Amino acid sequence: MSYLALARKLRPQNFDEIVAQEFVVTTLKNAMEMDRLVHAYLFTGPRGVGKTSTARIFAKALNCLSPKGVNPCNECENCLEITGGTSMDVIEVDGASNRGIDEIRDLREAVKFFPVKCRKKVYIIDEVHMLTEQAFNALLKTLEEPPEHALFILATTDPQRIPATIISRTQKYDFRKIPFERMYSSLSEILAKEGIEYDEDALNLVIRNSDGCMRDSLSMLDQIIAYTNGRVDESNTAFLLGYSEASIIVELFKAILEERKEDIAGHITELTSKGVNLKFAAESLIEHTRNLLFYMTGGGTLKGLTSYEEELYSDLSLRVTEHRLFALFQIFQKLLNDLKFFSFDQYVFEFAMYKAASFSAVIPVTGGTPQAAVSSARQSPARSAQQSPSHKAPRQESPSQGGGDKWQEMIKHISEENAPVASYLSNVYLSRVEGDTLYIGVAEEKRFYVQMLEKPETRDYLNKTAGKFYPGVSYIKAVLDSEPKKKTVTEKKKERETYYERKTKKEAGENEVVKQLKQEFEGEILDIKVLGTPDGDSEQTE
Q1: How far apart are CA 428 and CA 450, in angstroms?
Q2: Average pLDDT for residues 58-78, to the nearest whole number?
Q3: What CATH topology corresponds to 180-240?
Q4: Could you give the residue range(s) of every CATH 3.30.300.180 domain in the chain?
């Protein structure tokens, strides 16, 4: 007997074998038990998640001669004929190849005849969205009021293309992609039953490449097993799934993160010499950017990573900020769109790689947050032309210049390490220092900050940091202060906002260079910081 592919051999034969579609299965089983069946059903969802299999199981359950509860027995004559596709009363129609009005007219005539052996005459129309407009119109009346003995099951991967008049005449069931855990559990059981050895990393790659589609994953496993003579290992799986050039793309990604522009040309040459599709390379860079972001924000809990990828992202997470990844995603996404419309795709790809590796030179990224803000010291051309030659250029503010105290220095230092804690401190004030304890005053209406600053991890961090600026201090305590209210850093900043600053910020925001940067990187200005006063002296920050 010839070999039967895993996707066909392991097709579900009863409701209990359908994976990860509990809502659909439970509703259909309950409807059968309560005898509340409707005349037409619409199964929608991605490919390979069980739509057609569920339709066949439903048809068998309706016509089984010896049902086991609501499940078909898969042993009686009707079940065997439906499973083998030879039943005269369960008709499967391919909507892609029988999409015209003539085929639907034939169906309308045939549906009038009573079933030969079964209780119900079931029509399963797969890829129903492929029917023409005229065919849908011909189906309308029959679908709304079919004969008592007939039942329709429509299946589609693209429900948006189905007319609303058709959808309103059916009971709609949405099938979902199979989650990673359920897919892994099912495939590992299948491989164990088949006596196939496998690596966990190899199975992770298969599942990720299947995009939640069980049929795709089984087809890939079939190919891998045939190639490796019965063992699913990582190296061969990566080769067959097109990951063999992944190391080149990883090196390119590293060069971009580290801004090693001198290495970009060599990596691109290696990609093109090995025939790697540039669209695939762009998609891989987007995937690495997304995975790295999820790894950083999720504490390394991203599912489906191989051991090599775990090690890779753990290393890369120390070299990049979240904001930098946001910017890289914008660049790679624009590159992917550009590759679709330009014929000189290699040039487009090369310029995008250099732009990604030069990002901080255009918009500096420091202290964990990108300074997408543009300094108002870079005045508009009109203002520069009016400025006298003797006018001093604004210089950057530092804590040591003109009045910045220890409290302000500490907040500035913390903002580079822990931005959330710095924002809390900006909304409270230094009350007093007594012995080894620094007291932070908080107004009654801002008692929220007491709770935030008293969190164990925040308190421990501040206790370690305070001694660097206040020798002898090893404890920080936030209290609701009853003394006359002092001003916080945020309140002082608002008071210092003069007419000149507002005007300068407006000019900087309307600067042509700024507008070009916003358009090029599809970004927004988060803040504009004025670094100097009208006479050229640095602003004093308290």
Answers
A1: 9
A2: 91
A3: Helicase, Ruva Protein; domain 3 (1.10.8)
A4: 406-490
* Portions of the chain given CATH number 1.10.8.60: 180-240
Tokens of 538: 């640095």
Phi (first) and psi of residue 28, to 5 degrees = -65, -40
Convert the pLDDT of each residue in 420-459 to its tens digit.
788 778 878 887 888 888 888 877 767 777 777 878 888 8
**Structure-token pair, residue 284:** 């891989």
Tell me the per-residue pLDDT of 119-139, one tens digit each, with 9 for 90 and over. 889 999 999 999 888 888 888
Strand 40-44 to strand 150-156: parallel, antiparallel, or no bridges (unpaired)? parallel
Structure tokens at 191: 């491989």
How far, rounded to the nearest angstrom, does the alpha carbon of residue 68 sit from its chain's CA centroid? 42
Give the closest residue to 526 by CA, choosing from 363, 332, 330: 363
pLDDT of residue 398: 34
Say what the pTM is. 0.59
CATH of domain 406-490: 3.30.300.180
Query: What is the DSSP secondary-structure string of 106-157?
Result: HHHHHTTSPPSSSSSEEEEEETGGGS-HHHHHHHHHHHHS--TTEEEEEEES
Element (H, E) at 216: helix 214-228
Domain 6-174 sits in CATH at 3.40.50.300
Output the DSSP codes for 327-394: HHHHHHHHHHHHHHH-S-HHHHHHHHHHHHHTHHHHS-EETTEE--S--TTS--HHHHHHS-TTSPPP
Non-local (6+) Cβ contacts of 38 within 8 A are 31, 170, 171
Residue range(s) occupied by CATH 3.40.50.300 in the chain: 6-174
Where are the domain boundaries for CATH 1.20.272.10 in the chain? 246-362
Helix 345-357 vs helix 322-341: crossing angle, to nearest 10: 170
Contact between 478 and 454 (Cβ < 8 Å): yes
- Tokens 């001093």, residue located: 392
Give CA–CA dist 356/327, Å, rounded. 8
Q: What is the CATH number of domain 246-362?
A: 1.20.272.10
The alpha carbon of residue 450 and the mean position of all alpha carbons in its chain are separated, in whole angstroms, by: 35
Q: What is the pLDDT of residues 13-34, one digit of tens each?
A: 999 999 999 999 999 999 999 9
Structure tokens, 199: 């690596």
CA atoms within 13 A on the CB side of 310: 11
